[in-house]
Amino acid sequence: MEENLSLFYGLSFLTAAIAFAFALYLYLWVKKEKVQNARIDEIAGLIKEGANTFIRREYRILAKFAAVFAAIILILLPEPIWQGSIVPNISMVLAYIAGTVLSAIAGKIGILVATLSNGRTAESAEKSLKDAFLVGFRGGAVMGLLVVGCSLLGVAAVLMLTGDTTILLGFSFGASSLALFAKAGGGIFTKTADVAADLTGKVELGIPEDDPRNPAVIADNVGDNVGDVAGMGADLFDSNVAAAASALVIAQSLSGQGLDTISMVFCYSILGLLSSVIGIATARVGGHGNPTRALNSSTYVTTAIFLVLTAIATAFFPGFSWRIWGASSVGLLVGVIIGITTDYFTDDTRPIVRKVAHASASGPAFTILSGTAYGFISALPAMIGIAISALFAYKLCEPIGPGFAIFGIAMAAVGMLSIVGMIISNDAYGPIVDNARGLAEMGGLGEETIRIADELDSAGNTVKAVTKGFSIGAAGLTVISLLGAFMSEVNAALAAAGKPLVEGFDIMSPTVFFGIMIGAAVPAVFSAMLILGVDRNAQRMVAEIHRQFNTIAGLREGKAQPEYGKCIDIAASGALRELIPAGLMAILMTLAVGFIGGPESIGGFLLGNIVSGLLLALFMSNSGGLWDNSKKYVEAGAEGGKGSEAHKAAVIGDTVGDPYKDTAGPSINTQITVVSLVSSLAASLFVAFSIF
Amino acid sequence: MEENLSLFYGLSFLTAAIAFAFALYLYLWVKKEKVQNARIDEIAGLIKEGANTFIRREYRILAKFAAVFAAIILILLPEPIWQGSIVPNISMVLAYIAGTVLSAIAGKIGILVATLSNGRTAESAEKSLKDAFLVGFRGGAVMGLLVVGCSLLGVAAVLMLTGDTTILLGFSFGASSLALFAKAGGGIFTKTADVAADLTGKVELGIPEDDPRNPAVIADNVGDNVGDVAGMGADLFDSNVAAAASALVIAQSLSGQGLDTISMVFCYSILGLLSSVIGIATARVGGHGNPTRALNSSTYVTTAIFLVLTAIATAFFPGFSWRIWGASSVGLLVGVIIGITTDYFTDDTRPIVRKVAHASASGPAFTILSGTAYGFISALPAMIGIAISALFAYKLCEPIGPGFAIFGIAMAAVGMLSIVGMIISNDAYGPIVDNARGLAEMGGLGEETIRIADELDSAGNTVKAVTKGFSIGAAGLTVISLLGAFMSEVNAALAAAGKPLVEGFDIMSPTVFFGIMIGAAVPAVFSAMLILGVDRNAQRMVAEIHRQFNTIAGLREGKAQPEYGKCIDIAASGALRELIPAGLMAILMTLAVGFIGGPESIGGFLLGNIVSGLLLALFMSNSGGLWDNSKKYVEAGAEGGKGSEAHKAAVIGDTVGDPYKDTAGPSINTQITVVSLVSSLAASLFVAFSIF
User: Fold this and answer.
1) pLDDT by residue (tens digit) across A359-407?
2) Domain count, chain B
3) What would the pLDDT profile of A235-263 be if each residue is shown by its tens digit?
4) A652 → closest Cβ in B364, B521, B529
5) Contact yes or no for A528 and B383 at CB 8 A
6) CB distance from B512 to chain A under 8 Å?
7) Which residues, at least 6 apart from A531, have a Cβ–Cβ distance to it below 8 Å?
8) Cα–Cα distances in angstroms (integers) from residue B514 to residues A331, A473, B558, B616, in the given order
9) What is the rounded CA–CA span in Å between residue B548 and residue B564?
10) Range of the domain at B594
11) How high is the ipTM of this complex?
């Protein structure tokens, strides 16, 4: 029943080409806008240069890291070289490198276009909100299209060339390695700069947020780009590849059972990308003039198109199944619902943000306590949503035959991630318009223009909460299917070793329980290390800012330029230095548990890691967003407005929330994926060498 | 091989009688100290009266709650009455009521003695530190002895009279119901009063901590007693009964397999109590004059005596096994190790507390971020400790025969809880000397006396961190064995219904996974509800304090008495009102998951609940203790000392930590036990009536 596979390989390449061509068109469209204001041109240039500095450093360190991993893979994976041929190991290494390189290219170009779009968006805001929206959105959409295009291209090429889904896990691991650097490293970078700029600028010197005298101000703007464009893009590239790879691992194990499962994965991925292309092409601020509605409605349009197109494909191809279509649709719908509930907890037109703002009037301790409490509560609907969609997908696909139930869950993840092109576009829009707002102010573009930029920026913040909830939900379903992929890998290794197969992971087994307990602690320790890393790095940058103000004559009066580059250097090198121990801790814990307790313990480890990781990621992202918007709500005049005690308390809440929502919370996704892939890749080693 | 069982019933009653007689002796010994200072006598009287008010109210509400549960049990448990005889249901109801009543009596007498000892400790401090230590410690030991005596008496009596270990779960559920009220209700009470007293007294009015003009000051002192004496006592009564009950449920299922398992559970419990009696009787401040060392060394003495006595018993009785002795010893040792690592994160002579104090110099956001991060990291050693002890106990006992592995884990929990009499004594010592310190100041007892009281108080704080870590670890192992008990119950119900038995709970099964996800979210939501409850209740009390200062003439000048009783009323009624929704949420979620997904989902639910509950409980208890001690460290002169910016930040950290460490964190234990017992009790209903 795999007669259509070569058709779908071809279509995958064609669709990726369409996405790239459309991205090129958008790039040229954005580029033809001219930047006339010299000041904006200068500062936008500094931001661009800073972002490139970070990316260059990141990729340089990543290259060393990847070289070490490539060597390890070459020797050990998929089988130790002394146990068989070296050919699959070479394929695995090449796939691993391809995974890092494709993600890196998407990130690099995405940053290029984003830093090209910010100044242009600011200037377009002088014409109208509609124009400016389009520049900002299309600038972000380049990243969205590149990420999904590269993902589809890479997955199809690796599978077509090797025919081996295990090699695909190597590709996916490459994507994850990069995501770990881009998301967690970018997260530390952005918050280092943000916190240091606020501490010295607003608190010590009493100068406004985007004041060009502050040496950290450019680093802060760079941070938005490296965190939200490159970081979020790499994170979703990683999720997207992992979802496809794990679905394909399971699909391959089901081949010959009457359904064209592999083709189905490709077909749905292709249709997801096409739907995103249509959604992006039609996105416009309508007559209502509301950019938030424009972003949300193009997401809904993409969702609807995907559901219709996949239904048509399912009806058309004989090897496709309606049950699997149902699983994938449930995944997508639950993703949208998680986004909406996230919005409930973080939108200032809803009661929760207002309650936290009100609690701030009693002092910062109450800001923290109430935000923490609502953050914990906010995790519940998403946890239930993920649980129900997994249960539903499983039960729906169980009647097809043995093994199809877990394939249903994998397809729910593929469904949820189908509209990821649209999601990344929305997310990358955020830092572009945020930068544009700063540039409009620094370039002195006038009140009306700044008001328009403000409105665009505020839409970016609102939509960000939704996309974050979505990306965590997607990671949740993806890692469940990675757990299925892990079991496939373990059983392949056990079968090869002539040992009895694993039927499942029983929580009453002490080796499984052992893994669960440690797996659950890892995301907590990982996020703690990142938070402490931001803290330490911010202290370094504060010292540098003090040095500049003390040694550069005329800086305080605005007569001399600060050395922006020094701050960018500190943020970049510190971010990567702080990130590595956290990443290694997660990987080494996985290996320690695997070599102590064997595959059973790793099954437990992954489960504990997924469950506590999702809980903490949801808690941190949502409470951070909640504090941010509470502060903005107070600044808009509630509870005494700017300068009140409530405002001071709300600012403290926001500072606590910054590394929660932009560093630790979203990096947990990547940590989970990295750990899952390490486990699947090392499955045969755990089978061969564990103590228990 | 159960020839010795009637011997051990007899010895259980005898040992309980010894414990009660010793407690009576200590009570009379404390009582013969005279209180001469009229002011101390008066204030101590107010504290006593306030504590009684809370206990009375709590027990009144609990009586209603228990009546509802008793009615439900009568109709439904262990089997719905329409399916069989009503006799076991009546036994179950009586056991349930006995569980609540015995715990209530222990709590009531414990509070009585604690509130009798505080003033006497203050006055003894005029003689010497050695004398004062002994009064404080022996006052607390009454609670320790009563709790363990009542637990042993109750478990032995219920099992001897009914011969049915399922009825024992009813007794355990009674203990848990009370613990939920005492621990979570007491936790809300104590933090309501603490936070409100600080907010109005220290912050608004600028009067010192224990100033008698503050209407909340008595409520604050009452809170220490209801939280740490009654609450902690009920919590450990609950854990102790649950550990014994689950070990006995499993032991009964192993009867006839060659070992005298039931006798072994009783024998170890008896020897644990005797060891605690010896440890308590010999506790004294030695030549070094250090009360912390006195408390810790009597814990180590108790541990050593227990290990020796149980070794002798294991050698002597032919139906006992060295492997099980090993499991129980590992449990105890891991408990001690968890206590020591907790100490590392919360002791101000160690680096962590100092780092958080140093971070406070950069502002409150850094106090919160660093405390949160170290709190998360601190959970790791305890999680690993629990995981390893469970793995070790299992592997050690697996060779004995089928079913013995899980019995090993249950005996590790029994071993860890064997020295609980000593632990509770140390814990109840805390509020007594804390109160004594306040009374010494209010009674004007002179500098040297206050210095001695301070030293005693500081020892109480240090030891508290250790006992908290210990109690969380004990709860962790207990609930794992409760999971085993749950499976026994499910299989009994399945066998009765003629359905295939459950072999385990596979995490790859979507019904199990569904349960895990929701179970993991419940402790987060439960603790969030308690934190919000403290917040709301503190707001009410602040309003009352404002009212008193505005309407009572002369209060501000110290010429009129405040209405202390009003504040106690608000704390008490508010605490119970805020607690009930949180408790019901946990119970209703359990029932919802059980009736949707059946026993499989509940297995997952319990696992998710245990793992995320332990993680959050450790995080909250430790970060709270860390902030508390960082504040004290700054107050002792570090980072600028009292009044500095670092101090203000550290106070904010402490206020956030208060409900973490004294309300939400320790209540999670109880939530886990309640949920586990509800599951075991309702197992047959889930088997009969679930959707999936």
Assistant:
1) 998 889 999 999 999 999 999 999 999 988 889 999 999 999 888 988 9
2) 1
3) 889 889 989 998 998 888 887 777 888 99
4) B364
5) no
6) yes
7) A659, A660, A663, A664, B369, B370, B372, B373
8) 15, 15, 60, 20
9) 10
10) 16-689
11) 0.90
